Structures are given as structure tokens and as C-alpha cells.
Amino acid sequence: MFHVQYQPLRPITQTSLSGMCLKLILSRPVAFAQLWKSWFSSHSLVGNKNIILMGPPGAGKTTVGRIVGQKLDCPVIDIDNDVLETTWNMSVSEKLQDVGNEQFLEEEGKALLKFSASGSVISLTGSNPMHSAGMQHMKKNGIVVYLDVSTAVIMNRLKSMKVDRIVGHCPGSSLKDILQFRKQFYKRWYDIRVLCGEDIAAEVVAEKVLDAVKRYQNSELETFISTRSSRSGRTTEKNSHKYFGDVVTEGLAPDGGLFVPERGLPKFTAGEWQGLIEATYIERAQVILERCIHPDDVPASKLAEIIGTAYGENFTCSKIAPVRHLSGNQFLLELFHGPTASFKDFALQMMPHIFAYCIPRSCNYLVLVATSGDTGSAVLDGFSRLHDTDKQRIAVMNFFPEDGVSPIQKSQMIGCQTENAWSVGVKSDFDFCQTAIKQIFTNSDYTGFLTVEYGTALAAANSINWARLLPQIVYHASAYLDLVHQDVIPFGSAVDVCIPTGNFGNILAALYAKMMGIPIRKCICASNENNVLTDFIRTGVYDLRGRKLIPTFSPAVDILKSSNLERYLHLIANEDGQLVTQLYNQLENQGHFQLRKDLLEKLQQDLVAGWCSEEDCLAAIHSVYSTTGYILDTHTAVAKVVADRLQDRTCPIIISSTAHYSKFAPAILRALRITEIKQNPLSQLHLLSSYSPLPPVHWGLLETLRKKGNEDHQVCAADMSMLMSHIETLIQNNFM
């Protein structure tokens, strides 16, 4: 273990610093410049704060601390050598043998409580975080950096170091058990996590620590811009930059564009991804989202609490998003184990808690959402799980096409209503509902009126909200890591993904996972008979002229205007907001636009597309059930048909199973050629259940239909003034 003798530093006052500077300027001007550069580098990064390295024994805290200290030219303190052994006048191992595990932790904590330093790099012991008071004392003047090394790697390191006992180790407990037990304490205290792979050099870890500390102290670098903002406008408009908390609460940019991170998404190294292969879904989500959300916006500890709440008891499968082999090289990513049985739960069990944390306490908020079927119930369920104090200042209004969702989807949305969460059926299609919400958001006179008259601001919960997209990146990354964990592929081998696509959010999240380092080769966009996206990806022409929305068995992708496509076009156009504005103005005014040839070539490097007829959708459900006993929902069947046509079978293909078949019982019963179909949704589910299907009928749907299936809801015409009237009524009922 590297030994650093720590001696308390005499404070440098302005007078003493001036005297030192004057002597050096006169005698050794070059030395003065070097001293000033070193001091400024250390002071600007650390100031009076300490960098506190935390992690299990064998994580490399001492060695990394020494390197970081050298780079910053600041004191380095090793708690083991420089504090504990000096205080106790004996080695740590002797003390442990002398007093035993419990007393050792107490003695160690007492030593921490008496310790103070500033502007230093401090390496904690592996057991320091288990003493609450001691760690609270250390955090008061420090940034805690968690060197996250997998348990398997630590076990190998300790074995090579011939360490066979650590604090807490006793007869009947294994070293591995103790290391796993300690993780809960590390996760409680850290401000920053640094992922450390098996073969990563200490120098590289030290650089990662410095980069992480710089990021922690420079939240102003992680700003968001509109997809329609010009480059010149970004530098001249003071308020053009937004932070994560701003974009969560505002939803849509003032110019009608969508928010995207100005510097793009973080990239993970292959080693960092490999370090997550053994991790649980919740652990993967924590690591990925920490890198996408600055701790100034949501601290790591709060983010962990939100993720734990979102994916804890609310999901019926312990794996959260399991990957199941279907046949051949095809795998299903099951995204329907949440409370409302669709992939929307992954974002909407998290997003309400993030939203409640980010919004200012001085204002009430009405969250507006348009749904083509699944989003509505997921939003209503997610916001219903907030604390009562948050519900008092947050209300939800869900607009859905009255005749454009399945009977069970409608029953869900009606059943999920509460005092502050309403569902309104609109006598139109999803595109009208979504466009209406966008127009309401960009109507500054109306939003200003709501703020002044009712003290209420509007927010969005559709995938136009950035907080909706981030959690979806996680399950695409997790699916790939699961295939590696199952020994289907080695890390680095490519996969294709096939996703039923309407609003382009889910497939965009897969493209983002690819950008962050997941080896996805092609994203296959699967459309139903509303195949505007398929035509666009094949030709570069987005053409709505003469198109009418066709109601299908897969209503969640019955969409002609794909909102999140705008984010992808902004990406491949090198953030040319003026071009994006031009394209979408043309779409709005003329009903079509065409991509330049170079942009179409870029797009086709990432995407291929196909579409599926209604007949082929039902035939696929019947065929898969006949051969495997597994029931696909209608959207997954669309993706299955397209995957069969477009895959080249040179790599695995992951098909996103975006909803549980229970939500579309009439279509499923028809596909399975069951002639006796009852009108009551609950009876339909019971009939499906009698076939002992795989997977079983969704419990959450059964519960919703049993408890609240007959409640009423409001219906209105496809008229903007009517929608606004409903909005004001809900605000008056809840906030006045």
C-alpha cells in the first residue's frame, strides 16, 4: 500500500501568498508561472473541497488517490495509513483482531469524526461508508467519488493480494457476501460514480475521476437546445439554453421544436458496458441515467430512490425487461410487465417522480397527454403513485381518440381516473389530439392566461418530453447485455432490433443506445397499414397528402405525424435547426417534405423499414401460437412479420414486444380463430386465460377491469375551444 505522510498545511493567507509571489517573481519568474498554474488548476477544480475516493477493498483507492493528487498538486491522505494507524499506533489488521468487527467500525467512525481537511484527495477505507455519522461528517466538505468495480473483479484482486479477511468477515459468511452487503452503503453516499473495469490502469481511472469531478462542478455545460434553434440564435439569446429540470417541466420548446442535449449523449467504453453484464436491470438503469442526468438536476441518491420506486414492486417480472428466445435467431424483448401492460410503463413509472422533483414549488402544474392507446393509462397510473403532497399541485388530463383505441385500452384509461386525473375521449384521431396539444403549448396568450388567472403552468407527458425518452434507452441497452450474459453472443457482436413504430420514440431510444456504444447494426422500423414512416425511410419523402388514418388492430402505431422523427433529423443534419424548421414548416403548410440525398444516405445507414397488413398480423399471431404456444400482441406481430421479411439472419434480432396481448383481446381471439367472442372485456380476458397461454393474462388488466371497468368519462368534439374548456374545468376543480 502506497504510504503518504500527511502533515497539516498552514493556511495560505492573501498576505503570505503575496509575499511568496513577490519573491518568486523577482528571483525565478518561470518557477512562479509553474507554481501559479499548478495552484490554479488544483484550486479551480477542488477549491476547499476534498475529493473523497470510496469503494471496496481492492478498488485501487490508494493508488488512484496518489495519482489524482499528483495531477492536482494537492495533499493526498490515506485514511488507513495516515489517520487510523497514526491514531491507534497499530496496524489496521491488528486493531481488527484486537476489538472485533462491530467495535472496529465504531472506532473507525470515531476517528473520521475527529478528522478534517480541505483541498485534499482522500482515500477512504472499504468499511468507512458503513459508519453513518462519520460519512456525514466527511461529505460536508467533500465530493464522494465511488470507484465502482464488480464483485468478481474485486474477488480476483483480493485473491492475488492474498487478502482473505475484511471487516465484517466472520465464520459462516463468505467474502463475496460481505462485498455484496457493502454495496448498499457505497450507493448511499456517493456523489459521482466512476466505472472501473477489470484491466483498466490506475492512470486511466485517475483521469476518469478528474473528468467526473469536472462534470460534477460544471452543470452549465449540460444544456439543451430546441431542434429548431439556429446556431447563431444559440449564442445571442441568453435564454435559449435550458437545463434538464427546465426541459422536463416545459416539455415542448417555445419555438415548437423538441429539446435535445446540446453536446449529445454520453458514450460508454466497451469495458464500461461489459461491467454491466452481471448487473440487474435497476443497477443498469442507475448507471446509464446518472450519465445522462446531471447531479445538479437530480442527485444520484434521489435518482436511485426514483428508479427503485419505479421498477420495484410495480413490475410483475423480477428481470423487469426480460429477453426471451422466440425461434431461430429471433428474440423477444418483453416490455409489458409493468402495471399497465405496455412499454410506456418504463418511462411513466419514473417520469412523474422526476417531474415532481424538478418543478418549482411556487406553481401548480397541469400535465397534458395525447395517447393512441397505451400512453394514457400509463400516465394516469404513474402520476397516481406520487406522494399526496405532490398530487395537490399536479393534475393530469389525457386526450384519446374516442373510437381509435381498443375496448380494454379505453377501460384502462377510464378506470385509472382520479380526482386530479381525467380522461377525455375526442371525436377524432391521435394526430388531431397530439397536434392540438402542441398548439396549446405554443399559444403563449393561452398559457399566459392560465398562469395569471389560475397560477397553473402546462407540462407534457408524451414522448416529446425528454424525460420520457431516457428510460427507454435503458431497456435497449439491457436487452443486448442480456444476450451477452446468456452466452448468445460475445460482447462486441452486432444485433439488429425491430420495433413497431408510430411516434418514433421507441426506435429513437434504440438509436440513442447505439450512439452510446451498444453494438446495434440496424434498427428495423415496422409499420402497420399507416405506413408513412416506411415510405419515408425508403424514399426520403414524408408525404401526408391524400393520406387518411386507417384504424387497425395495432392502434398504438396508428399515427401519421411522428413527433420524435424531428429529433433524429436534427441529429443527422448536424444540429441544423434552420433546416429542421424549414422541413416541418413545409410539412405543416404543404403536407410533405423531402430529405436531401446526403441525409437520406445517413438515415439509411441506421434504418430499414417495412410494413404489415392486417391479415398478415393476425396470421403471425396464429402461426407463432401454433408452433410455440406463445401469444404475440398485435404490435409485436407487426414487428415479427417485418423482421421475417427484412432480417438477413447473419446476427440475432431483438423484436420489441411493446404490449401485452391482453389489451387487444378481440383481435387475439380472432387470430386464434376462437369464434365465440363476448363483448365484455373482462369476459374476453377470462376466455383467453382458459387457454393457459404463454405468457399468462396480465394481472394488472384483470384488476383494473374488475374494480373500475364501468366508470364514466367525458367526450368532446374535435374542437380546440372544447379542449381548452376541459382544461380550465379541471384546473378550477383541483387548484381553485
UniProtKB/TrEMBL annotation:
GO terms for cellular component: cytoplasm. It comes from Pterocles burchelli. Belongs to the threonine synthase family. GO terms for biological process: amino acid biosynthetic process. Pathway: Amino-acid biosynthesis. It comes from the Eukaryota. GO terms for molecular function: pyridoxal phosphate binding. Its cofactor is pyridoxal 5'-phosphate. The modification N6-(pyridoxal phosphate)lysine is found at residue 344. CDD domains: SK, Thr-synth_2. PANTHER family: THREONINE SYNTHASE-LIKE 1. This is THNS1 protein. Pfam families: SKI (PF01202), Thr_synth_N (PF14821). Keywords: Amino-acid biosynthesis, Pyridoxal phosphate. Residues 235-311 form the Threonine synthase N-terminal domain. InterPro entries: P-loop_NTPase (IPR027417), Ser/Thr_deHydtase_PyrdxlP-BS (IPR000634), Shikimate/glucono_kinase (IPR031322), Shikimate_kinase/TSH1 (IPR000623), Thr_synth_N (IPR029144), Thr_synth_N_sf (IPR037158), Thr_synthase-like (IPR004450), TrpB-like_PALP_sf (IPR036052).
